[in-house]
Amino acid sequence: MKLGTERVSKLLWQLSIPAILGMLSSAIFNIVDRIYVGRISSYALTAVGITMPVQIIQMAFILLVGIGTSALISIRLGEGKKDEAEDILYLALKYIVIFLVLFALLFMVFLDPILELLSISDNVIPYAKEYIVIIIIGSIIGIPGYCLNNSLRSIGKSGVSMKIIVITSVMNIVLDPIFIFVFKMGIAGAAIATVISQTTLTVYVIYAFINRKDFAINLKLRKVNGEFALLGKSLKLGMPSFYIQILAALVNLFINKSLLKFGNDLDVAAITIMASIYSFYHMVVMGLVQGNNSICGYNWGAKQYARVRKSLELALLYSFLLSVFLFLVIILFPQLLVSIFTDDIGLVEITSAGIRYYLCMLPIIGPLTVSSQYFQVVDKTKLSSILAFLRYGVIIVPAILILAPRLGIKGVYISNAMSDGISGIVAIIYIIVELIRLRRTDQTISIQK
């Protein structure tokens, strides 16, 4: 496979550009979706933001299975174990469906207590309930494709991944105004449009894995020997992403409560807009990360550590440059970015002022993301977990408790920046040590040969 032979700099772009384009289209869909929702009302936009902890927790299980299985597939292919890689692919589909069904059942049983826990105001609750119920139930058929999409990238088929994400994102952008405004379904229409596009992606990805003969592995209904051992190994690799999402959900819930305590519903809407702008950047970085992970996972399994180091160095450099670029755009043109989402002058002013604090540590978030994902894909899950705990909870929660009572809403924004900055510095230290270790390991292997 060219993952082990092609020039790394060329290969990284070959894998990353389709992934970036695919992730960008997904980010654009999220942004356009929020633009349409914001046109319904500011309360509808608040509903999307305040129910986000539920979606983040659900995403935790998707990443637990999706990231873990795709990482293990890369490693097994690098080791030349194709049959085992196909076993893992089948387990990915099987268990993500099981997890999604269980999650939806629990959510519906405890719907009212969950919504009460989110501290949703009377103005927002009708929008929030209508939206989140459709999203969670529809995800049973919509989300499995996103889980398996990680495996497309792990076998070097990022172009296929990009194609289907772009198609379904455009579909969602087209369907949103039809369901929201033409059919007059409001926020429920936004949720239905999302489910339809997600389901289309799922059908396509499963079909491709079953029928495409040019794929390194195919999806087959099969009996898997040592099923729970393989599942356990996959879940171990996916556990850092799971921790990140659970912590992110708890922190998001805590931030929303803090915003409502020291501000109002408009402040929650402001954070939703900031998160949408950040997601655009984050999707680009994640496209780069996915290209890097495919190279690192395969070559780690093949013990070609020089290629691992080269790919990691390039990914760190490119992610830093991307981070600096968006940081400058945010600092120079905050009102222009925010006004895309809403024509509420008060909301524009609140968000434009806050985003400069909230994302002021953006330049080091790119290297932080590359580092934490790298440690996960090469089976160094403890390091990845440490970085996750630092960024999502250990720093930001105490910071909010200390700063918010003194500075109000601004204290919440500054706390997020502190968390990004400190965890980013720690990640950079860890990754420098890892690069030195990779160089020494490669030199040792060369001497032995």
Number of domains: 1
What spatial form do the alpha-carbon principal axes imply?
globular
- What is the N-to-C succession of helices and strands? HHHHHHHHHHHHHHHHHH
Approximate helicity band:
over 70%
The number of helical segments is 18
- Rounded to the nearest angstrom, the distance between the terminal CA atoms is 23 Å
Describe the biggest sheet? none
Unreliable stretches (pLDDT < 50, length at least 5) are none
Helix/strand/pairing class, anyone? Answer: mainly alpha
User: Mean pLDDT, as a whole number?
Assistant: 88
Strand content: under 5%
According to DSSP, the number of beta strands is: 0
Q: Radius of gyration over alpha carbons?
A: 21 Å
Protein model, in words:
The protein has one domain (2-448). 85% of the residues lie in helices and 0% in strands. It has helices at 8-40, 42-50, 52-78, 82-109, 111-117, 125-142, 144-154, 158-182, 186-211, 227-262, 265-301, 305-332, 334-338, 345-358, 365-377, 381-394, 396-407, 409-448.
List the helices and strands and how they pair.
Layout: H1 8-40, H2 42-50, H3 52-78, H4 82-109, H5 111-117, H6 125-142, H7 144-154, H8 158-182, H9 186-211, H10 227-262, H11 265-301, H12 305-332, H13 334-338, H14 345-358, H15 365-377, H16 381-394, H17 396-407, H18 409-448
Helix pairs in contact: 1-2, 1-8, 1-11, 2-6, 2-11, 3-4, 3-7, 3-10, 3-11, 4-6, 4-7, 4-10, 6-9, 7-8, 7-9, 8-9, 10-16, 10-17, 11-12, 11-14, 11-15, 12-15, 12-18, 14-18, 15-16, 15-18, 16-18, 17-18
